[in-house]
Amino acid sequence: MTINDAIKAIAGIFIVGSLLLGYNVNEKWFLFTAFVGVNLFQSSFTKWCLMEKILVKAGMKKTGDSCNC
Predict the structure, then answer these.
(1) Beta carbons of 53 and 3 less than 8 angstroms apart
(2) Is the pLDDT of residue 69 over 90?
(3) Looking at residue 22, what is its pLDDT?
């Protein structure tokens, strides 16, 4: 799995998870959904992604630009 694939998978899990939590627990979880979306949006312009930095420090090998979905 590449870093790009991992970032997409993590973003999807965060979005679906926060939507479920927002619907079933507390509507403030929808703010986390917005946070993930804003980060994905800004990374498309700045080419900087915090999750990429976290995954590299966790030991995943970098294989090219990761947030250029």
Answers:
(1) no
(2) no
(3) 96
SS3 25: coil
For the chain, the helix, strand and coil percentages under 3-state DSSP, each to the nearest 5:
70, 0, 30
Query: How far apart, in Å, are the Cα atoms of 61 and each of 6, 24, 26, 30?
Result: 11, 37, 37, 32
Longest dimension (CA), the chain: 38
Fill in the amino acid letter for 50.
Answer: L
User: What's the CA gap between 14 and 65, in Å, rounded?
Assistant: 21
**Residues written for the chain:** 69
Report whether pLDDT(57) > 60.
Answer: yes
